[in-house]
Batch of 2 targets.
Target 1
Amino acid sequence: MTSRPAANPTVDRRRFLSRAFQATGLLLLAGCDNLSRSDWFQALLGKTEQVTKEAQRVLSPRQAMAKEFTLDDLSPVFPANGTSDPESEEYQALAKNGFAGWKLEIGGLVQTPSRLSLDELRALPSRTQITRHDCVEGWSAIAKWKGGKLSELLERVRPLPSARYIVFHCADPDEDGRPYYESIDFEDAHHPQTILAYEINDLALPIQHGAPVRLRVERQLGYKQAKYIMRIELVESFESIAGGKGGYWEDQGYEWYAGI
Amino acid sequence: MRTYRHTLPVRLGHWLNVLCLLILIMSGLQIFNAHPALYRGDRSDRDRPLLSMRAVMTESGERRGITTVLGHPFDTTGLLGYSSETRRGFPSWATLPGPQWLAMGRRWHLFFAWVFVVNGLLFGLHAFFSRHFWRDLFPKWNDWRNIGRDVRNHLAFRHPTGEEATRYNVMQKMAYTGVVFGLGPLIVLTGLSMSPAFDAAFPWLPDLFGGRQSARAVHFLACFSFVGFMAVHLFMVATTGLVNNLRSMLTGWYRIERDGGTRDEQACR
């Protein structure tokens, strides 16, 4: 004999209530996913970015330094995220020659546009720092970086007063051919720990970590640390560049201000 | 007899917390899923996680979800590591948004983190100046004296009636005080410890928790402590007069039964 517990009105009501709860939950979840896909709601939630940036910059002195670690703290393996070997022919040709033919182009809103070879970049005043790399995914890794100070480089090219952002154009396009780029403002560009790194753990920067040069802008998340830098452009606004949000990941919904 | 139990600021704060916590927990799990592993210290050495959720292929070509806690693997297929035929830490019904979408998870999380913090600060100010902390929430000497009796009554599901039901008992006071002054600040501070910009301004903060990755692990534990608190809270709300409790948190008014009688007995009188 099969007994049907549903005959009991209390159980019936409980079952109804639990199903009603489940249905409401599912509806709410679907509603949230719809909200997530709507532009106005993304923009509303995105307002936080400005608030966070202002709050963090009020709390943190302009020159507050990211913690520097010791050699004992180095990660045994520093993971290479994103592109680990750019496919473009131009890049592959440069790599074959050990980047002897690579020239860093600095232009845009500057008085003296320049082209620097790797040796010229190495001749710039440099900084060596052992810092923690924090990926937006949540993991951290520690490495020792050496690179030319971006502030020194900017002094040489003499930015025009209208320049507000420094844009880094990179050699690694994604599967759809969109190139990687990133941008920072002058506050970060003039920070003493902001360097164009050409060494990791005392070795020339290998291809997987962004050879010949990558950006280190400590105090921000990993996706700001652009690899494979080919060209630096000073601009007043990045709205006309690619997706207009100031970076490859920014164009896909990540925050331009990546301090958190 | 009725008593005005919860003031308007407390009720507003409570329901805002409900919204914030639900969204923060679910969007937090979405963010966690981007790298479903926890570590001790400042860096993530992939071979030494405290906890990890992975999908593995068995010899028969079947995918299983494996959760490893302190080196001990557990098969958690369908819930953790592998669910709905996808490699993911937590299943899609537990995350916000449902599908893997880190950028949007961060937007939800960081927006409602602000709401949660501002709401918490306003509640703190209100509770301090209205003496709500002192009058209702901090355990007093009398409470401690009766702790044995209160614990026994709780375990036997005997809940106070009459005059006594107008006050929180010592376990409620400890739970609420613990959440307001312990768990709440802890989850905010461990969250801030994961911000590289915040760490540059306050390097002692991540160090306090043993490094950024330790802070991330504590953030995760604090999250599940909130889940635990909410589970116990909901259980107590449901077993001590669901309608009365809900009404008091919605309208402020709480009905008190006369001493010594349950509702059924009163109905018979």
Note: Chain A has a mean pLDDT of 92.
Target 2
Amino acid sequence: MSTEVKNAVVIGAGPAGLTAAYELAKNGIRSTILEADQLVGGISRTVNYKGYRFDIGGHRFFSKVPLINEVWDDIIDEDMLLRPRLSRILYRNHFFDYPLQAKNALTGLGLFEACMIGLSFARTKVFPSRQERNFEEWVSNRFGYRLYNIFFKTYTEKVWGIPCTEISADWAAQRIKNLSLVEAVRNALLGGGGKTKDGKIITTLIDEFKYPRLGPGMMWECCQSNLESQGNHTKMGRRVERIRHSHGKVECVYARDENGELEEFSGDQFFSTMPLRELVNMMDPAPPDEVIKAANSLAYRDYLTVVLMIKRAEIFPDNWIYIHSPEVKMGRIQNYKNWSPEMVPDYSRTSLGLEYFLWDVDDEWTWSDDRLIDLGLKETVTLKLIEENEVEDGTVVRMKKAYPIYDQHYQSHLDVIRRYLDTIPNLQTIGRNGQHRYNNQDHSMLTGIYAARNVMGAKYNIWAVNVEKEYHEETVSDEKATGDRMIPRRLVPDDDAESVASDAVIRAAFAKLDPFALGSAMGLVFAISLFLATTALILKGGEVVGPHLSLLGHYLIGYKVSWSGAFLGLIEAGIGGFLLGYVGAGLRNWTMSSYTNLLKRRADLDESKDLLDKV
Amino acid sequence: MSARSADQEVSHAIARMKAGILAFIFAMLGGGGLFVMTAWLLIKGGPQVGKTLNLLGHFFIGYSVSWPGAFVGLLYGAVTGAIIGWCIGIVYNRIVGVPSAS
């Protein structure tokens, strides 16, 4: 792409869009950001209602990508809090620790259920589903069907609105990036791999996380203000309606403001975070029919939060609670003051966010705020978390297209759209909806950074973010072109050299011995040794030649210290040595294989233990 | 490298033996083993110390169950062990088709 970019247009002031503008600004490129809403931050915004601040879904600031941590620190270092994480599962009016702890889960469920879970788990281990086609089979194979049914099924179906048997197992596999055998062995033998480049241990998402003092929106408000001070303006309330392009290049976008006036924004480079379905339908001239059809086939899950303001200082200590109880529709409850004490105006009050995951065709989506608040209130009382008379106010926040849906055909639709977008190199789509990918905030930011760097001459494959584990480190592609975009090739940073070397050692140490080769080698050496020993005694002579070595005749049939015995011993010791080597190598291989598989299973289970966080 | 290919690389990789290292290990076991066995019999004592182990003197000239013999046995055991270990390593590597590294 051109290195002489003068100005860029960014559609959407969410994490991806603002980070792209931030990266461009660092390199002296001005950008105009168009935001349809009145708040920046996209789904990571903070809504302020009468001094109560709330987050759309709960955004932990945690990234394994050092670059993203640097950006966060750069924007609001001093206002970032380090918060303890506590989240539990509410099921049958009982709180269960999350991630699940065996003792706590089994105690809470009772002896009978605990036994049934144990039997179900054992059955799964003995007779696992041979094919892991769907989410149900994937989770059941790891935890047993009964545990899956209690702790994963209801919540997953609440969030995604489709039966777990219709959710692809690939989706779970993408969210749970299992360690390879080599990584599992390395972590078990040399300690966990969760280290930063300077060698510090990364605290797991399970224990604590960073959070801006005034909610995630604070990050993006600071970022916006930072951009403004450098002359990069965010135009609020601008809904993009048309994207004019010609000869494989976007020329300008048209956005309507709240007064109904249409404005034109031109630039050299364009970044879009809007949902792909909308983007494709706004292209002018229109794309081929198959591209429009593919875009219109992409599905989204919508989300709304009912926020209740409660006259009580402490309700529960968790940041959030997963609601597995099937008798209520809500999927999760956020307790915002446990994210940051400054999320409430008065510490004697608590604000709870009751989260509902819906389709925009669901009845509840069209309900009035009052009716939704009433539903939330009744359900929270049903869960015995509050008393009805404790609620003094409430509000509702709706977020359309919060979750891109991974149905059976989404990937093929996405391929069609990507092929079309590849023909327009000065338009890059980034972020969760820009890529129709269930990115976390950090992944969306990374797509923004990489897209910005691409316009300055780098060649990142932004579609590889949150797909390839390796891409979470800094990567640069080589110069081999495949169409307009480049295939990235990972450079091995110096800091990784140690782990690469240790991987090589592990591969060598855990490589299999060839039983035939070891048997042959030992057979040959044993045979020659006995032959030489026998010969030496024969040549030495004496009254009784080799009486003690002849005792081997007890084991080697027909052997004695004589010339014929020497040759017989040669053959028999050869066979004995071969068997010893063959069986020895086989046993060693079996032991190593069992050990590595054990380590792998443990590592997989460890990776899966925060599965609900990733649903 | 993907997790699957890494797993396959481990599961299908055939180990090569470092003949020199194998020789060293066998030398330690052979030499050390014979020294310890000799020393143990000497410490244990008795009317006929190490009558059977003395027979090794047929092969290891100068070896006997005595303190000087223990050190001679250490040397013989180490040399014999090294030769056996090295031979096993070399033959194994030849059979699996990889060059030996000592």
Note: Chain B touches chain A through 28 residues (CB under 8 Å).
